[in-house]
Amino acid sequence: MVRALGSQYTLGELLGSGAMGQVYRGADHEGNQYAFKLLRGDLVDDKDFVARFHQERSILVTLRGENLVAVHDLVIEGSTAAIVMDLVSGGTLREQLTATGPILPAEVARIGSGIANALHEVHQAGIVHRDVKPENVLMDDAAPIRTPRLTDFGIAKMAEGSRVGRSTLMAGTPQYVAPEVADGQSVTPAADLYSLGITLYEMCCGVTPFHGETVLQVLRSHAEKLPGRPDGIPDELWEVIWGLLQKNPAARPRSAAQVSAALGSLAQRFWQAQI
Ligand code: ADP
Ligand code: MG
């Protein structure tokens, strides 16, 4: 099925769907291929959301980086709002984890360095991602080596004030959310570093460190429990993860750039040591 989006784009096959809406493959009239994220209809009814959508436009469309999914355009057409972005083939990091299970330290460090690099760009632009997790990392197969690309930046913030968005988006995703965020404090870049720490932990051993039967229990365990050290994880990698998972945001590394550099050099060393 092919349908038009505004006067510029045509949409084709459905690629996936998520909490915010559905993602389609499509193209502009010159034949350039993109992914189109069509946002939920109830968001488009919301004046606050539409205002934010326009407000964020100028920031999002200028954000570029080798580890980001570039946003090319934000369009509102009738009752449809869509984000036009790079089409990334290779699925999500979540799909990779589900297919292969835990990832070797050298790859964890390499992919982690890429995600941290993306966070650096996002933070430099004054944005906090708020929802770093394997679902929001796309793996780019077109690059010479499978490259992580962070997506969904700025989206959580746009949806912040919306009626439906509030309960589902304010808290991020319980398994990945920093203790201070669960506690209702303002969200800073350090919260993204915490979520990156949880993501790295999960890449190493296949499960996230904090659990519970209810959302509240999960959030409590972020605040109260210490993460158990997974088997077989090299000391240097554990040190990085431990630093990211500090309860006190001020005790986490000072910048995503620093984390990216540290993980990048670990990736090289682990690769040489074949671990
Ligand atoms: P949500 O955040 O609302 O859950 P996502 O942005 O994660 O939605 O997208 C849902 C699915 O669509 C993803 O799991 C992925 O399979 C697919 N997808 C999203 N963005 C792209 C893209 N830029 N290129 C290719 N596939 C994508
Ligand atoms: Mg997502």
Automatic annotation (TrEMBL):
Span of domain Protein kinase: 9-271
Binding site for ATP: 37
Record's protein name: Serine/threonine protein kinase
Coiled-coil region: none
Domain of life: Bacteria
Organism the protein comes from: Actinokineospora diospyrosa
